[in-house]
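Dear H.,

Thanks for agreeing to be a second pair of eyes. The structure we're designing against is below in C-alpha cell form, covering all 154 positions.
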C-alpha cells in the first residue's frame, strides 16, 4: 500500500497490527504511532488482500513486512512482521499471497522469508512451503527477570 492508502485505511490496518503484533514490540506507550510512522516512511510495508462487494472494499487480510539484514552474515530476509486475516483465508488465497511475497522477497535479494507466529495453522501452512519450524522464539521480560533475580516485588 502507498502512504496515502495507509493513512486512509489506518483504523483497519491498526486493528490488524494490534491483533497480531510480534512479541518483541513490547509496551512502548507510543508504539502504534511508531508503527504508523514506519509504514508511511517505508520501513514497514503494508500489503492488503481485499475484494470488492457492491463497490465497497472488503479487506480479507493485512500483511506487514520488513526487510531484515543480518550484519554478521550479510544475509537479507523478508520478515512477516504481522499477518492478520479478517475472515477465514482459503488455501488458494494463501498460496496466491505467498507467491506474490516470494517474488517480492526474491527481487530484494532475500535468502528467505521469516516470521514469528503462535498460530498453529500458520505453522502448518509454512511447513507446506518448506519452512524450518524447529526453532522456538524465546522472549524473557527483563523487568521481571531483574525483579526475580533480586528477590524484589513489582
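And this is the sequence the design step returned. I haven't edited it by hand at all.
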Amino acid at each position: 500500500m502507498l502512504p496515502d492508502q495507509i493513512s486512509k485505511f489506518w483504523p483497519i490496518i491498526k486493528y490488524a497490527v494490534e491483533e497480531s503484533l510480534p512479541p518483541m514490540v513490547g509496551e512502548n506507550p507510543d508504539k502504534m504511532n511508531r508503527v504508523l510512522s514506519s509504514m508511511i516512511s517505508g520501513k514497514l510495508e503494508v500489503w492488503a488482500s481485499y475484494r470488492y462487494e457492491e463497490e465497497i472494499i472488503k479487506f480479507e487480510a493485512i500483511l506487514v513486512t520488513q526487510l531484515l539484514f543480518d550484519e554478521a552474515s550479510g544475509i537479507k530476509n523478508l520478515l512477516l512482521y504481522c499477518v492478520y486475516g479478517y475472515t477465514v483465508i482459503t488455501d488458494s488465497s494463501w498460496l496466491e499471497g505467498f507467491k506474490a511475497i516470494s517474488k517480492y522477497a526474491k527481487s530484494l535479494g532475500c535468502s528467505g522469508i521469516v516470521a514469528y507466529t503462535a498460530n498453529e495453522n500458520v505453522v502448518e501452512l509454512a511447513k507446506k512451503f518448506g519452512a524450518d519450524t524447529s526453532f522456538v522464539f524465546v522472549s524473557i521480560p527483563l523487568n521481571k527477570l531483574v525483579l526475580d533475580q533480586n528477590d524484589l516485588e513489582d
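Two observations from my side: The CA atoms of residues 68 and 142 lie 24 Å apart. The chain has one domain: 3-149.

Warmly,
E.
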